[in-house]
Amino acid sequence: MGVVGRTAALDDLLELARATEPDVVIVGLHDSRLPSPCLDLLLERPRVKVLGIEEQEGRAQLYELRPEQVELGEVSPEEVVHSIRAAVLRPAPF
Question: What CA dihedral angle connects 14, 18, 21 and 27, to 10 degrees?
């Protein structure tokens, strides 16, 4: 394990990740919410994991994108359209 980069500003996170191609990014969090630069990083580089550590409580959160499979069984064209619309409207998990 090695440190491949460091930045004090979350605004520089994506650019640094592009340059260093990390497997895991560790960030300090003010609370358990994922800052938008970290979300941008996950969306652009879905294999990267973000380990967020809350500054006050010291609790850690691991954020990652991963495939999810939901069995639909046999469906009609109308049910396919309904399933797509429901998936799009489902709130993000974080």
Answer: -10
The half-sphere exposure of 68 on its side-chain side, counting CA atoms within 13 A, is 5
User: Looking at residue 30, what DSSP letter applies?
Assistant: S
Q: How many beta carbons lie within 10 A of that of residue 41, not counting itself?
A: 24
pTM of the model: 0.68
Q: Which comes out higher in pLDDT, residue 35 or 75?
A: 35
Q: Rounding to the nearest 10 degrees, give the CA dihedral for residues 69, 73, 75, 81.
A: -10
The predicted-structure confidence for 19-64, as pLDDT tens digits, reads as follows: 999 999 999 988 878 899 999 999 999 999 999 999 888 889 899 9
